[in-house]
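Archive entry: two folds, one per protein. Generate the first.
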Amino acid sequence: MMSKFSSLSPAQQEAVLNGAALNPPKGYTSNFDDPPNREAATNAFFFLCLALATLAVFGRLYCRWILLKQYSLPDFLFIAGYALLIADIALVYRMAPVPVMFVHLWNIRQRDFIIYLRSVFITSEVYLFNITFIKVAILLDWIHIFMPRGTRNFLFWAASIAIFVNVGFYIGIIVANQVACTPYEYAWNKLIDGNCGRANTLDATVAAGAFNIVSDVVILLIPQRVVWKLHMPRQKKFGISIVFALGLLAVTTAILRFVSSLKHAKSPDFTYDFSEILITGCAELTCGILVGCVPSLPKVFASANMNGIKHKLSKSRLWSSFSSSQKRSSPRSMHSRPPSLELVPRGRAGLFHKLDYQATGFSESSTDSHIPVISGRIYQTTEFHTTETCGPSTFEH
């Protein structure tokens, strides 16, 4: 009947548009006015995802742009991903003039279902762009954090190949969805004459779900080998791995989305089953943002705590008198100051020369009587590399 919709009379067309999009099962009656749904619960979930993503993204930007004065491509990719997440949630919030989240298709009119399918088509493309931006940003972060400039090792090549594969795959899925149907409107309006013979969009959705799981696992594993080879205490290594373990949440949500895609592909109850895909997809995008941005939050909180402590101390008389005495007792001569770190910039990483105090002499005017006076010599230096980031930091002695 759908293929002959254009041949129906106006009254018959109106009857089809006002009828149920799916015949109800035996024993059920369509309820268009107030169907059972979970709109309130799903809206609360989407709000939670948006709140977590907002905290994570703005925390990262504050850390990198305000505290460290650093700007990088992943920052802007996360901003793009965050903006698309907002757009995705907004689309889901108003997918149709009637409630659709966990609403059975036989409780939705055909005219509302057409509007809903158009929103599904748009939000699916937004999701693909968003997941691409987020995954590329995370992989670029891995290269930035763990790779000194000019180095080409396993992590660099693994991350670079993963970026290439992810971008190529998702662009391919986006293009397939765009060219699948003729005419273009047939992608969401099955009442008009047309076909989707160029590509099977349901198969593309399932393929994207399987690919998400594999790529999430790869992104999670790429930095682990480097992390456990860092020269730092085992407890700190474990802490960094816990941060990366946030990626397990992304893998879990990707698996759940894949299962929902398989269920959706075999079910005629489109609206009810696609609701699960929308929820798990939003959770997956949020987890991806958390993986890339949460490592910045401890530095933000530490900065806030230090500023608060300094503010309180600055108001105390004890701190004021201590600062004044320090200023009066500090000679202005260069010879009275202990040696400090001398920085020789070299790209992102810096080359530092640390003077070992116990083997360094000062002039006779030095107020530090416990340090031996050995004029004009440095007996020992220690060279080390350090990189300051808003995420897991690297240190190589």
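Generate the second and append.
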Amino acid sequence: MEPGTDKINFTASYYQDGEYKTLNFSDYSDKFVVLFFYPQDFGEAITTQIQLMEKRKDIFPSNTYCFGISTDSLEAHRFFVEDQLRENIGVEHVMPLICDQTGKISSKFKVLNKDTFEASLSCFIIDNIGTVLACMASDPRLGFDLEEVGRTVFAVQAAISKDDWHHSMGTPAGWKPGDQFVRIDIITRAVGLNLEVQNSTDQNSGNQSSQISQKTGSMGLRFW
């Protein structure tokens, strides 16, 4: 599943805090969600990830809902949480773990390995209107950089808070909370075959801008 995919919806069972529950993803259609797919319970990557998520509760914005998903059974999730994470390691807070024994959810997100019937290690960041805005994947032996996942969630929320988010406004590379935003203006105009690069600074406002022009049009970047 690629960024831009919208209307995400599925129903599944999950385990959390000693209970088996049912998730209707439509109930989270107006919330920010991160879905973490992983191959199997008791794996090093998911174990250390959950440990870090408890230690660093500030990695994600407080209004973000995180879920883990694997093709393990609900019973396997329970043993993983209660015996491994809580009893052996001492982790208290564990995100809900969704059971995808049929592989339908993993298939929907295009992360199911049909040979092993396991989900690839991957995550999807979904905004508050149910659209996938970012996705990441790695070899199962390489745990996620949760700092980067969290930074992306902060960037998504900060950009959406701007009125013109859906008019080419976003964050530049390496953006962190408190940094400036960038807006891309595309103007259609013929200027010949040669590439023109123009850089300018507004002396009055201090805003920086750059433009790249071609025969098909021009693109301007504005930071503020």
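Annotation attached to the second fold: Residues 180-223 form one domain. The chain has two domains: 11-160, 180-223.
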